[in-house]
Design brief:
Largest sheet: 5 strands, mixed
Helix content: 40-55%
Shape: globular
CATH class of the largest domain: Mainly Alpha
CATH architecture of the largest domain: Up-down Bundle
Number of helices: 26
Bound molecules: iron/sulfur cluster
Number of domains: 4
Radius of gyration: 22 Å
Structural class: alpha/beta
Length: about 425
Amino acid sequence: MNNCKTMPEAKRLETLDYSILQQCMHCGMCLPTCPTYDETGLERNSPRGRISLMRAIADGQLELTPAFGEEMYYCLGCLACTTACPAGVDYADLFENARADIEDAQILDTKERRFWRWLAVKTIFMRPRLLRAIGRVMWLYQSSGLQALLRRIGAFRLLPRNLRELEPMAPRIQRSFSDGLIAREEVPAEPPRFRVGMLTGCVQDLAFSDVNRDTVDVLLANGCSVVTPRCQACCGSLHGHNGETALAEELARRAIDQFDLDEVDAIISNAGGCGSHLKHYGRLLKNDPDYAAKAAIWDSKLKDIHEWLDEIGLAPPPALPEPMTVTYHDSCHLCHGQGVSRQPRDLLKAVPNLTLKPLAESSWCCGSAGVYNITQPEQAGKLQKRKVANILQTAAPNVATANPGCHLQLQTGLRIEGSDTIVHHPVSILARAYRNR
Ligand code: SF4
Ligand code: SF4
């Protein structure tokens, strides 16, 4: 235990099941897979180094300091280290507990940081109606031509640097959100084989409601009837990954309450980052007597769309109307967080008239990593450049990826490089094929 009573306490790390911290045997096999270690070559910027720091804090040998906080926010949370680790260290659990301690102890607190966290994490992303209202205003601003005009006359130069850098990353908002495109319940033409629940997400709903529509179309084509609750809230991954555990728990309860879990065979997520968090509601709510059992059922039914289609056996898609060459980028949280990397490739390969080109370093983080491209723009920019260079190397005019953050990061990076390469969600390609029936 930490004997220094005046220093902030690391309550979660100190009370965490110690065997998780002990699991690391310092073999270093995770080191070559870690983008931050690759950048600096410093042990403290590696998974092994970070685990040692967490263990030292749990042992009371180190104090919870701003330097530790900054280290934990320099980590992308990409979980490439988890895939590489032969000892099965649950880095995601350690990392989330460390960040929660950092937020509880307020060791990184500044007025500005407090304001942005209050506005985004604690207010906008807790209130789905408010988020959608902001989305409507943004859509008007973008579709009226005001955004283009302000860009043309260089008005954004007047903004403070951090806001100026954020502007090009703003997603293009869809005219209609998921509730306008998807009915509460949709049934396939043939008698359904399965009944599934559909998660529409928050950013996904604003910027990629068309992908949600495509997902439902693909599910219908595969014999699933689809239940889609209205005005869904954020799944809480933003909160869980950023140390706001209580808010993440509240959002998990809300998500569970949307469904009658006995009535669905699966709950479908099409966003890699969200799915990785959604599959661990059981861990998040394990101490909640009213929700622990429901959360365990939820986890067992939560499926990534590619995983689900692979499990039920994909209905052979018709050929695309024209030949298409695609390369595939793995979303970290789909590939490392959920272990889903073969399935999206297999689904794409099953589409006649589609050629899938391999992408070098396909599971290397693109720098999006939740809000990392906002909080650590320099490192995120380097990873974005590296990813885009690999994509351009393939000469494929299309790239597929299954996470809204990656989608936007690739889109922005390709635009910066002046490339016409188009970013798609794999299910959108599948939906296009089914529509060609
Ligand atoms: S999560 Fe990613 S950035 Fe963080 S330690 Fe693991 S590999 Fe490195
Ligand atoms: S690969 Fe696993 S056991 Fe080896 S150093 Fe990294 S985290 Fe520790």
